[in-house]
Structures are given as C-alpha cells and as structure tokens.
Amino acid sequence: MPRLETALTKKLGIEHPVLLAPMGGNSGGAMASAVTEAGGLGIIGGGPGDRTFLEREIGRAGNSRVGIGFITWAIEDKPEIVSVALERQPAALFLSFGDHTPYVDEIKRAGVPLICQIQTLEQAIAAIDSGADVIVAQGQEAGGHGMTVRGTISLVPAIVDRAGDIPVVAAGGLADGRGLAAALMLGASGILMGTRFCAAEESLWQPDMKASVVAARGDDTIRTSVFDMLRGPDWPAPFDGRAVRIEAAERWQGREADLRENLDKERAAFTEAGKRGDSGTKVVWAGEGVDLIQDVQPAGDIVQQTVDQAVAMLTDKKTYSLV
Fold first, then answer.
1. How many CB atoms lie within 10 A of CB 121?
2. What CATH code is carried by the domain that includes residue 302?
3. Distance CA 127, CA 120 (A)
4. Angle at which helices 29-37 and 299-315 pack, to 10 degrees?
C-alpha cells in the first residue's frame, strides 16, 4: 500500500502524517515510543512542567525519537523546564495554550522543530510570524482543553491559506483514517489525535477511564470551564475543556458565576466525593470523535489502521468518482 508523504512527514522526518497529542497525565513515554515506532510522531505530555514526571517518561521512551509538549501558561513560572526538555534533543517541542514567544529563540538555537497549537486564525498568524515550524489547528470538537471558537473543518483551510510552506496539522474530532483523508483534502499535512489514543493500551489512564472512552458518544460530551473549576486548578480564560458529561458539570454549566461564589465549598465536596470513589467525579476528557472508538488497541495499531484507511479512501474509486 502506498505511503502518504506530506510536508509534515518531510519536515519532521517521519513515515506517517499522524501525531500523538501531548496529553498531560496520559501521553507517557511508552505510548509516545509506540506511535513513533509505528511511523508517526509520539509526543510526551509534559503538561505543567513536572520535572520528575518528564524525566521518568523520557526514560520510558527509550531510544525512540519522540517530541515533548507543554501547557505554555502553566510553565511561565518555571521556564527552565524548556531547557531541560531541549537538553534531551526531542524530535519536536510542542507548545499550546498561551504565549510561546518567550521560548522561540532558545528552541531555535537548539535546532529543534517548534510545533505551536492554536485555536484561532489570529493565534495562527502570530505563530507563523514568530517562526513556528508546524501549526496545529485545533477545532472546538477536540477533547481536553481548547477553546469554544472555531470548528476544525473551517479553521484548517483558513490557516492553510495563510501558512505558506509551514505544514498545518488538523486536530479536533479526528479519530480514524476518514479524518486523516478529510484533513488532507482541507489542505492539512497531517492530523493530531488525542481522544483515540486515550483508548490505547499504552495510555497512562486507568482501565475504567479507557472503558469510558469506548462507551461514550460525541453527544455525551460537553465543553465547559466547570470541569476545571471543580477539580482544580482553574485554567485562565479563554480556555475550557471538553469531557464526558458528569452530573456536577451539567448542574453548573451556564451558572459559572454562581459556582465561583461557592467555589471553595463545591470544590471540597467534589474532592471528597472523589475520595469516596464516586465515579461521577472522574473527568474523562474526550472529543466529539469519540463515537468512532470501538475498542482499546495498541497505539502502533491505531497509527497503522488510520493510515491504511486513509490511503484506501483516497485511492478507492468507489468512494467518489468524477463524471
């Protein structure tokens, strides 16, 4: 079967245009390694920059060529963590949710590709102007953190039109080869998947959370800031998160101001319920593409199946015809 060679595969030196989202607390070294060894690019989720976690997961990646990602606003008080990451010569440094510009010069000096994830055209233009090597266009369908602004199908081509030679990666609601094929038709050079890899064998999530992903449907998810308000820590505006519905989140959605006034009490009650084992306190981050996830598989199999399905769709004349 033919390979999908794109501007992204050439830029990052990978075989397949599939990236693992650097999900904090989920995308560890073993999963990043598995994605890379399958031909994509695995990216360790460094999240808020916990050095102990980062060094442990880098070790678990072994000799695999993997990237490292951070929540940009959360490392503002620990910028040295970027230096720690760059010392490991990652395949790429992935920054999202905040101002990445203070780190650009150091990343460039290290010769490491900079991947910037954005949620708006304005953010994309800023990333392009600052020297990003790859732009990830994240639509509001995405699981986990993002913004309630644009959908993937309209955001991606708008950014492609402005990015020139910079590869654009589509993210948000994409969970199989159909999403990859569609992203390529929109002008993207590849996709970044998060929710699909939540149900990978190598994911750091516990089995019950993986099972929740398999059981969930897109209609079961909501995007709101309430998840973070209840569980802590608060994320700065305008970022919020998409996860599987829980009663507490539905109760407070649209009443965030009231929740803020009672936050200490409600957060304490939410935490206490979690300690008692209340399953309704587990936040299972998942995007609208969760419908497409039917089972837990090895991460490498997910990569290969995604690519094979996309290639089949793009070459099968039964899918469409020109008349």
1. 17
2. 3.20.20.70
3. 11
4. 40
Tell me whether residue 210 is in a domain: no
Looking at the structure, do residues 52 and 159 belong to the same domain, yes or no? yes
Question: Which three-class secondary structure string do you get for 110-163?
Answer: CCCCEEEEECCHHHHHHHHHHCCCEEEEECCCCCEEECCCCCHHHHHHHHHHHH
| Same domain, residue pair 85 and 147 | yes
Strand partners, 223: 242
**Residue range 137-165: mean pLDDT, rounded:** 96
Query: Quick one: which of 11, 31, 8 has its CA closest to 300?
Result: 31
Residue 322 has pLDDT above 80, yes or no: no
CA-to-CA distance for 141 and 147, rounded, in angstroms? Answer: 9
Q: Tell me, yes or no, whether 277 and 195 share the same domain.
A: no
The identity of residue 136, as a single letter, is V
Provide the Cα torsion 242, 195, 173, 292; round to 10°: -120
Distances (CA, A) of 154 to 116, 183, 223: 18, 11, 19
Pull the structure tokens for residue 201.
């064998």
> Would you state the pLDDT for residue 319?
67
Nearest to 191 by CA among 1, 24, 41, 32: 41
Output the average pLDDT for the chain: 94
Query: CB count, 10 Å around CB of 86?
Result: 18
Give me the amino acid identity at 260. R
- Residues 29 and 86 grouped into a single domain: yes
Count of structural domains within the chain: 2
Alpha carbon 232 to chain centroid, angstroms: 20
Q: What domain range is 113 assigned to? A: 7-204+294-315
245/189 same-domain check: no
SS3 96: strand
Candidates 243, 249, 244; CA nearest to 266 is 249
Euclidean distance between CA atoms 221 and 244, whole angstroms: 4
Q: Are residue 86 and residue 183 in the same domain, yes or no? A: yes
Provide the pLDDT for residue 317: 66
